[in-house]
Amino acid sequence: MARQWGMVIDLDRCTGCEACVVACHAENNIDTVGEDQAARGRAKHWIRVERYYEGEYPDIKAKFMPVLCQQCAAAPCEPVCPTFASYHTAEGLNGQIYNRCIGTRYCANACPYTVRFFNWFNPVWDEPLNLQFNPDVSIRSVGMMEKCTFCVQRIKAAEIQAEAEKRPLKDGEFAPACVQTCAPKAMVFGDLNDPTSEVARLARSNRATKLLEETGARPQVTYLKRGSWNGAENAENA
Amino acid sequence: MTGVICVASLGLWLAAGRSSKAQAPAPTPLAAQDTGVYTTAHSSILAAVREFFGIRSTPVQPIAFTHKVHLANGLQCVYCHTGVDEGPDATIPNTNFCMTCHVAIDTTNPEIQKIAAYQSRGENIPWERVYGFEQSAHVKFNHAPHIRAGIDCSTCHGDMTKQTVAVQAVKLDMGYCITCHEQKKVSIDCVTCHY
Amino acid sequence: MQRRDFLKISAASGAVAALEGCGNPDHKLIQFIPEEDLIPGIATWKPSVCTLCQSACGTQVRVMQGDAEVVRNGQLGLIKMGLAKKIEGNPAHPVSHGKLCPRGHAALQVTYHPDRIKGPMAVTGQRGSGEYQLISWDEALKRLQAQLGPLATAKQKGALLFLTAPLIGQRRTIVEGFAQAFGGSPVEFELFDRSVLEEANLQSFGIAAMPTIDLSHSNYVISFGADFLGTWNSPVAQSVGYGAMRERPGQRGKFVQFETRVSQTGANADEWIACPPGMEGAIALSLAHVILGDKLRPANAAGALGTAIDGWSTGLTEYAPEKTAAQAGISAATITRIAHESASNGPAVVLIGDLATAQTNGLASALAVNALNMLLGSAGKPGGIEFSPTAVAGGATASGRGANGSIRDVVQLINSSVPKALLLYGANPVFATPEAWQVKALLEKVPFIASFGSFVDETSILADLILPDSSPLESWMDGSPEAGTTRMIVNVAPPAMNPIHETRSMPDVLLTIAQQTGGDAAKALPWKSYEDAVKASLAQYQSVKGGSVTATSADDFWSKVQAAGGWWSAEAEPAAIRLGETGTTIRTTTAQFDGDPEQYPFYFLPFPSQMFYDGSLANLPWMQEAPDPMSSAMWGSWVEVNPATAQKLGIAQADLIEVASQHGTVRAPAMISPGIAPNAVAMPIGQGHEHYTRYASGRGANPIAILAPMSTENGALAWGATRVKISKVGVGRLALFGGSFREDEIDREPR
Predict the structure, then answer these.
(1) What is the fold, at CATH topology level, of the domain defined by A5-225?
(2) ipTM for the predicted complex
(3) Which of A181, B103, C195, C377 is most buried, judged by most C-beta within 10 A?
């Protein structure tokens, strides 16, 4: 069966530290846009941590939720792209093909998760910050949409390596940058079509939920709701 | 695997964002420091047009290297172009590597003497790139799976036994890649190469 | 944004980097023969250590071939060399467990920073002008020798002041030895001082070290203000333990946070309880009162730690929940319930830190928490507070580590007799101390100042001579973290890459000077290089059984340890605690605050920023653009104001607010925040740099500057003890990542 890459994000473990946000920038050659452009909403955080407050001081609570491209199986961003730059790959990712992109930005318009980012300008790095570039990831130029790819470069590298060693890919053998760095292990990545994988197991949890499922986008990221504490009757969190 | 990266060279001004408001301009860095910028912007409209149409000037190599002669003497491609079966890129050997042989071989040849001169100055030979994709193609070509699949170097690089300096003997457009991939029943999913 | 107004394309150097043939005939740079044998496109992973906070997380660095502009024999050119591309946690490391915090990733930008000092410099203009000229290393060493040499001969105490960030390992040994040989003393300074907790732990447990918390086995965690999942102590190790605590099969641990402002850590609490600043110790004792009174734990469980607290033996009647509740605004029922929960759901562990220990009663509060831990049975036990054995081996049985109060000792020293020379390395007290301490004016009195740092900042701009250290990725690393694991551990890593600039390893520079000076200095520092010193210091671990590296010879051990990034014991071996017999009675006093509550109605809560930490990382663009976890703000400062307070004062989102203490004012835009008490305002620490590279200079506001010179009982800066007033003075700007993408920034609402 073909692979379906997916993720599980356990909101009970996420601490809101944003290591994932910075790891993603470092891995994917994302430029910083500077204060002015950031104030205009043009910063490109392929993964972000949303924070929600509930209640009123002093009965105030706050919750975190990391949001990244959900790699939807019925992605709203795909049918609206006039050049097929946004398309569905054979392994269940929403691919973004930079050289096809002509910058209509319909995909960002259609995306219910606001996870697509446009390059309003040619990115600029003060030298020698460019020495840090990851050679496995394209540098996007002006007029292109970009977004989380589930670190497709790592997926490709792992697949090529497994093929060279004439063996199947192992679950957990590699991970996108965000998943790799998450200290409380809130994020898990793998093949949802492999029932023995960690991600498939966790996606069946009784705490599982998805974001904006009612849009019909069929997101491939499953969120596990925050747990609660019941003292002596503490239930096991699946 | 690294595509051709065009860097803003001298004299470019980018499309600027709004100027900063309500902030004092940053003090200049130390007077002794001066750094440039790296950007994907082209150095001129002409350069952008050339890249779009894939027009490249013929590379002029600093040394009249001849593949013909080296291959005729029994060297294999991978002797110099190491790494091609391990990773995405093929190495171009450095001056010291050339001199390991040429400290003794053909030392009276003026081209060899040029190499020796580079070495004595501690300099690497500034070869001009022959193969590579335009940066705007966003292609991540990986040599290793192709070598492991048994593809011969000449399939894409032409018959090197007939070339002196390398030239683009084969037209490496996307059609060429797709045709072979289809024949060999390998993935033509876009994201196989473009990401 | 400044840098777009600011493009400087250097014609002289060609500025055309990374040109593995773009066919550009304008190449002006020659290419050097590579010095390393690398295959392009293939990564090697090298072990290293992160130095951006005291955790000393073990990392692995992805190194790949790239083209860099370097200078060889005075000539600029391109070279293919191994370049660090990505930093990840080292999976085998007992502190990082293969993980990292956001700051660890950004450490790459230190190495590749455009404003990094690229070679030795001497000041040309007036001191503090920032006008420098590049000089050669020979010249720089000559000048340094000329200034320091005489001090070695004269051996006048106090002649040399060596001011550094807290150091570990042989780096520390060399700095200490050097300072002493040249008639001086090393002084360690860091804003987020550990001395309060170290002193408390020394008194309670006989160990002057930060605690290592076994969260993965904890069932109940109470934290008084400690940002343990963000910036406090060893956040990566603690986050790893926290994740395990949450999803342990069958028993999900509970987490309760007491603080005045919802911090990034506090947001994760099952129960977040508002508590006024300075009341943390009282609440801890209130919990103890309930546990003692309701006989939830054996009466003498807290032993000497309990009886040292005034009133403990009579049941802490002063801390009955009803009394504390009234003062703290927390219901007595809540206090009673939490006491019961913690006592019946062990292991329970109590933490305290950050603002809670940065009060005038910080030490007493910390001692109260230690007693509570002892009472709950978690001191020195799995699931509770333990201590690193290598911290103890390294001398943590006596107090005297770096503290921010150390600067006041420096100030007193300079006031009594001005040192002849001041050496700076990694410490920025001009930025990170209140203006009331007048640190800059005092440091300026020293006739000769030299800095080894990589950047010009508020303190190093006073330097007459700069001898830049290589960045951490370009340097040998060694040393043991004070907390984060109870295994014996020493980090050792060779440089992950060669230096890209004309920098030199600081410990090696010191060794050179010492050898040139000869006499006692050379004897005190006998090693030829820092690497040799590290190698020599490792010998003691080779024969220890049960270590991560086994070897047949000293050389074999040395190469294996380097390849692994360090040596650690296979098993946890927490240091044995010696229960304090201090004999002194501790009273939890009421916290004092500077400023009359009538005139200065708000508690001022500066808080460590997740991205800038203590301000030392504000120069990194990834950190400037990463959204603050609670506010999503980027590239600026802000003042958090409670919504009801804002409404009362007519303050709208992004209005420019002036915050005034008795000691100064700062201005920043208002952030209406539901997570802060109505009688408090908060500001992130880290911005407000006058000099700190193009990304941080002239940006935002520094809340430390206006703090009152209040102290904890042991002399550390009580940075939570200032009261302020606020007023609207205009319109500001917030760059928020959250909220709508509207052009009109002032209308942005935080979600």
Answers:
(1) Alpha-Beta Plaits (3.30.70)
(2) 0.96
(3) A181
